[in-house]
Amino acid sequence: MQVAQFPSPYGGTNQYVVPVAGGAMGKTWIEAHWIGLEAGPLVPAVAKANNIPANVSGVFVDEVTLVAADAGLLAGDVITAVNGIQVTDLKSFKNATKQVALANHAQVTVFRRGGTRNIAVTAPDELGFAQIEGAPMILATDRAPHGNYGPCDSCHTIAPGGINLNQMAKDLGDILTTTAPNIKKGTPAPHGNRGACSKCHVLL
Ligand code: HEC
Ligand code: HEC
Predict the structure, then answer these.
(1) Which of 14, 15, 155 to mutate for ligand 1's pocket (most ligand atoms within 8 Å of CB)?
(2) CA 16 – CA 125 distance, rounded (Å)
(3) Which numbered atom of ligand 1 lies nearest the CA of 151?
(4) 147 lines ligand 1 (CB under 6 A)
(5) How many CA atoms lie less than 13 Å away from 83 in the CB half-sphere?
(6) At 160, is the pLDDT very low, low, confident or very high (cuts 50, 70, 90)?
(7) Which has the closest alpha carbon to 74: 108, 101, 41?
(8) Rounded CA gap, 25 and 48, in Å?
(9) Per residue in 97-146, pLDDT tens?
């Protein structure tokens, strides 16, 4: 759970609730998959919408199939521990599932409808550990479909474009034709803080 604060291009300070901090390559993780369930960070907006008290921490289950469904896990559950190892966010969820990855059963502790319960999950084979995804890769010229979460490169990897010399070269398979314009070093951005200038622009 994280609130980002950064200077607004229009003066003052903006404050936003962002998905969750700290993932692969320092990017933000948005979703984990394990034993047929999908879980995301329990951000304040999700907790509020689902009547989950602020003192509950864990990951929020939003889809359940396969082994997870057989075990009785439900969408709307908050996973707070796996085999007694506390889960507070997607990263600790991954670490907790790693401890049981080679086993075929585990106890999953969930918060559901005001109380906590332990659910035994059993798989025909190894449980494996949670796979985590980050925010999708975007183009330098993309517009955010979501609200202003802060500098784009704090969550997204910016896809290589034709003139992005410090990133991957463009190849014949690329269909990206639009790129951010080249800019002179020291030119102030006419747009808000989207991240490190060289992620999108070639600095002349
Ligand atoms: C705090 C993390 C964060 C920041 C900062 C951020 N985004 Fe996103 N963005 C996301 C997440 C998470 C998604 C997935 C959809 C969602 O949950 O809104 C997303 C989705 C997108 C998508 C849709 C991509 C797709 O393939 O579906 C685009 C385009 C995008 N963002 C552009 C931007 C731009 C441009 C900026 C900078 C102005 C930016 N984002 C800043 C987290 C972030
Ligand atoms: C996520 C990609 C991204 C980042 C990071 C970014 N920009 Fe941009 N910038 C663009 C795009 C795309 C445009 C084209 C106009 C637009 O879309 O707003 C642009 C336009 C500009 C322009 C106008 C250039 C022209 O010829 O019209 C300047 C100047 C500029 N940016 C400076 C900066 C500076 C300085 C930084 C770093 C502090 C920065 N930009 C970071 C994507 C980015």
Answers:
(1) 155
(2) 42
(3) 5
(4) no
(5) 16
(6) low
(7) 108
(8) 30
(9) 999 999 999 999 999 999 999 999 999 999 999 998 888 888 888 888 87
What are the structure tokens assigned to 142, written together? Answer: 């993309």
- Per-residue model confidence (pLDDT) at position 134: 80
Reported confidence tier of residue 178, pLDDT bands at 50, 70, 90:
low
Check pLDDT > 80 for residue 5. Answer: no
Q: The tokens of 62 are what?
A: 């939003």
Q: Please, what sign has the CA dihedral across residues 183, 188, 190, 196?
A: positive
Query: Cβ(40)–Cβ(62) under 8 Å?
Result: yes
For residue 146, give both structure tokens: 């979501």
Average pLDDT, stretch 63-91? 96
Please indicate whether residue 191, judged by its CB atom, sits closer than 6 Å to ligand 2.
yes
Predicted confidence (pLDDT) per residue in 9-22, tens digit: 444 444 333 444 33
Contact, 59 vs 41, CB < 8 A?
yes
CA distance 167 to 201: 11
What amino acid occupies position 197? Answer: C
Q: For residues 201 and 80, which has the higher predicted lDDT (pLDDT)?
A: 80
Q: How many residues does the chain have?
A: 204
What's the rounded Cα separation, in Å, for the pair 42 and 20?
9
From residue 107, alpha-carbon distances to 97, 115, 143, 169 in Å are 11, 16, 43, 48
